[in-house]
Amino acid sequence: MQTLNLKIIKLAKAVKLxxxxxxxxxxxxxxxxxxxxxxxxxxxxxxxxRGTAKVFPNNTFKCFACGEWRMLG
Length: 73
Fold this sequence. Notes:
With 73 residues, the chain is of the alpha+beta class. The protein has one domain (6-71). The chain has one helix at residues 6-28; strands spanning 36-37, 53-56, 60-63, 69-71.
């Protein structure tokens, strides 16, 4: 069985998180603080036809459907 070097795994994880953060920053950048948006992870829309993720002032967003909580930046 082959194994990967720990440095390669850490580098791949850092690159993936950087790409995810860039994508999410572009996704959330056009939104106002307190606005409900569609979650980029679960894409859930509630009964009232609004998104379930809320944008907070400290550059974070939280999805109340899937529980995803991310700080961008």
